[in-house]
Amino acid sequence: MLVLIGILIIIAGFLLRFNPLLVIMASALATGLAAGLDIAAIIAAFGKAFNDTRYVSIIWIVLPVIGLLEAYGLQQHARTLIGRMKGATLGRLLTGYLLLRQGMAAVGLTSVAGHAQTVRPLVAPMAEAAAEAANPALSDEQREEVKAHAAATDNIGLFFGEDIFLAIGSILLMKGVLEGYGYIIEPLHFSLWAIPTAIAAFLIHGFRLRRLDRRMAAKTEAAA
Q: Are the CB atoms for 24 and 11 separated by under 8 Å?
């Protein structure tokens, strides 16, 4: 039971709002010591995990590129583009992005889009421009709501789309856990059963985005 101490450390660390990376490292260290591993073996496990996932260093290349694009007016061009498109309402724009995000995640392209590389420099400014087209006098509260829905759309599209991909880590984790309890289930079955959930998530969030359009329109009429 001592090996479960890592879970308690994670819960306590997140509740106390400590640095997530430090919390995870402390949890892994405590779990390794409780399991009887020595420090050298734990450090070796850290090194192996880092080496196996060393592609994460790509983020240090992506972020400067996005910064340069923003410095040269990427957000302004995105806002101008969406402002020229007739019929591009806030809800329709985000629903289209939701479909795109789910579709890419379903084929394993989970890192193509995201908050840092897509939502902040492109999707959020375009959504804000679509909202401004309907109501030029957007309040600060409405602008923050638009940005929040843009970020939420990315989260929902990724979360409910990635489980359709056979080789995603969550499916492999579920397969491994169930096999430990004697249930042999092929990854394809997990993938197929994720499709109805993804469709339901798309319909539910699409309905929420349509309500957002109506709510924005109602506020505009009330202000007029």
A: no
Q: How confident is the model at residue 35 (pLDDT cuts 50, 70, 90)?
A: confident
Both 46 and 69 in one domain: the answer is no
Q: Examine the domain organization and report whether 82 and 47 are in the same domain.
A: no
Its domain, for residue 10, covers 2-52
- Per-residue pLDDT tens over the stretch 138-190: 888 888 999 999 999 999 999 999 888 877 777 777 888 888 888 888 888 88
Q: What is the pTM of this model?
A: 0.64
Q: From start to end of 98-198, where are the E strands?
A: none
Number of domains the chain is built from? 2
Q: Side chain identity at 93, as an amino acid letter?
A: L
Q: Where are the alpha helices (DSSP H) in the chain?
A: 5-15, 20-34, 39-52, 59-71, 74-84, 90-106, 124-134, 140-162, 169-180, 187-223
> Same structural domain for residues 213 and 113?
yes
Q: Are residues 119 and 180 in the same domain?
A: yes
């400067």: which residue's tokens? 64
